[in-house]
Design brief:
331 residues, TIM Barrel, globular
């Protein structure tokens, strides 16, 4: 058995439902090409057809040996720039659409909610509805919220709800390093996305989010960005400049590093081996980043190729760790 924590989808009926109501998002369709933008504002982008094709997804899962996908939206569709009213109705529409996909294939799909983090109390309420009423197992969240960092105390109602529900939060990079020129060489993805995740989880650690909510369950995609490979530098900052780095912490960052979960999308078995050595096999979970070109099309083989793993460690990474976390979700 294998479970994929990191897969993206646009529910097939979501686009038509957006067209039929006022959700603050404009949809234009040219043949098979679908484009989305915020009403009167920023373009979101083209909604790739493979994100909406459930049958092709199931075939790809079978080919890759993936038994179950934990489905989350395309991160660019998070809707954080919408007003509270639009963001709340938009998230509800998405979550009910995605829950329908999961319910149609209960042996193959689980689902992560979208939540309106720009309105933390509403996000907390939507998360509770998604988990308790729709049977979702958590939420996917972006690395920033309309320009705010994740250590913003205003987000505490959401963290409190997630901790209470014991659900899974998948942290996914969004709008990587907007102040830097990353358009050349595909750097926005190759370097920008893992860097964006590192900055976001750095804010959560140094900002004391995990000190306030120690039972949060957070998985950082792409092998944790650069966090596991630079945690010594973060610990050094904690000890060398406590007046800056330890203002919200009573323990070094490395103690929280081993508290998090990390997917296997590292594209190198030796790097994955380092990750396992660094955080423990009990905190690594299989991922694909389906259906994107920077994903892992053979995740089961990736896990099997990690040097020196015992059969029990492989089982934990392929399914055991996620099953343990899923069993803890408070529906």
């Amino acid at each position: 058995m294998s479970i994929d924590i990191h897969a993206h989808i646009i529910p097939p009926d979501f686009v038509s439902s957006l067209q039929d109501g006022d959700y603050g998002v404009d949809i234009s369709i040219d043949g098979e090409k679908v484009h989305a933008s915020v009403s009167g504002g920023r373009a979101i982008g083209d909604l790739r057809a493979e994100l909406r094709d459930v049958e092709a997804r199931l075939t790809a899962m079978d080919d890759a040996g993936v038994d179950v996908q934990v489905l989350a939206g395309w991160i660019d569709l998070n809707g954080y720039v919408l007003s509270e009213a639009h963001g709340t109705s938009y998230s509800r529409l998405f979550n009910e659409s995605l829950a329908g996909v999961a319910a149609a294939h209960p042996d193959r799909f689980l689902a992560l909610a979208n939540v309106p983090l720009q309105a933390p109390a509403a996000a907390a309420a939507e998360l509770a509805y998604a988990v308790r009423d729709l049977g979702m197992v958590g939420a996917q969240i972006a690395t920033t919220v309309a320009g705010r960092e994740l250590d913003d105390p205003a987000l505490d109602p959401f963290w409190e709800a997630a901790e209470s529900l014991r659900c899974i939060l998948v942290l996914h990079p969004f709008d990587p390093l907007p102040q830097r020129g990353l358009t050349r060489y595909f750097l926005s993805n190759a370097v920008g996305r893992p860097a964006e995740s590192t900055i976001a989880i750095g804010h959560m650690i140094f900002g004391g989010v995990f000190e306030r909510f120690p039972n949060l369950v957070v998985c950082v995609v792409h092998g944790g960005g650069f966090l596991p490979y630079q945690i010594g530098r973060m610990d050094r900052a904690f000890h060398a400049k406590p007046e800056l780095a330890a203002t919200h912490l009573t323990r070094p960052p490395s103690e929280w590093e081993s508290h998090l979960y990390y997917d296997t999308v590292t594209h190198n078995p030796d790097v994955a081996r380092f990750l396992v050595d660094q955080v423990g096999a009990t905190h690594v979970v299989m991922g694909t980043d389906y259906p994107f070109e920077m994903g892992d099309a053979s995740p089961v083989n990736t896990v099997r190729s990690i040097p020196g793993l015992s059969e029990e460690e492989r089982r934990l990474i392929l399914e055991g760790n996620l099953r343990r976390l899923l069993d803890d979700v408070q529906t």
